[in-house]
Amino acid sequence: MLRIQTKECFMSEPFRYRLRVRYSECDAQHVVFNARYGDYVDLAMTEFMRALGRDYDALLARGLDNQVVKLTLEWKASARFDDVLEIQVKPLSLGNTSFSLEFLILNAESQQLLCRAESVYVMMTTEPFEKTRVPDDLRAALQEGAVGKVCDQSG
């Protein structure tokens, strides 16, 4: 996989997705259950792709899909019930058939880093379900990033 060069402005103004922690996402101590962070990464990736103009339905209409092949999570602190989280998303690497994204999950109010995640995606065709090249338009969109865009679903 080749490392892509991200623009300096992207580093200072990443795509940001905001959500509020719901009661059902927490354990008995009102701390976010560890498996929910994978859900948060998936939600942020979906909104990041939408911000790039490459939403999931548009990919499927082209006979394409992406599949998570690796997800790593590194917890730094706990998120709790009713916290507003900010998930910053940026591309890390771009290969012929795959790409990876970094997710920084922060407490939106304090900006404390709660979790760092990295996810690797492989492009697939839908029929037959086989690995394929990242399309040129998606490649260009990933290289550009969703600079400074915000999706706020925190209410």
From TrEMBL:
Single GO MF descriptor: fatty acyl-CoA hydrolase activity
One matching Pfam family: 4HBT_2
Keywords: Hydrolase
Keyword Hydrolase: yes
Coiled coil, from the record: none
Entry superkingdom: Bacteria
UniProt-listed InterPro entries: 4-hydroxybenzoyl-CoA_TE (IPR050563), HotDog_dom_sf (IPR029069), YbgC/YbaW (IPR006684)
Entry's family note: Belongs to the 4-hydroxybenzoyl-CoA thioesterase family.
Classification via PANTHER family: 4-HYDROXYBENZOYL-COA THIOESTERASE FAMILY MEMBER, NOVEL THIOESTERASE SUPERFAMILY DOMAIN AND SAPOSIN A-TYPE DOMAIN CONTAINING PROTEIN (0610012H03RIK)
Protein name: Uncharacterized protein
Organism: Alloalcanivorax dieselolei
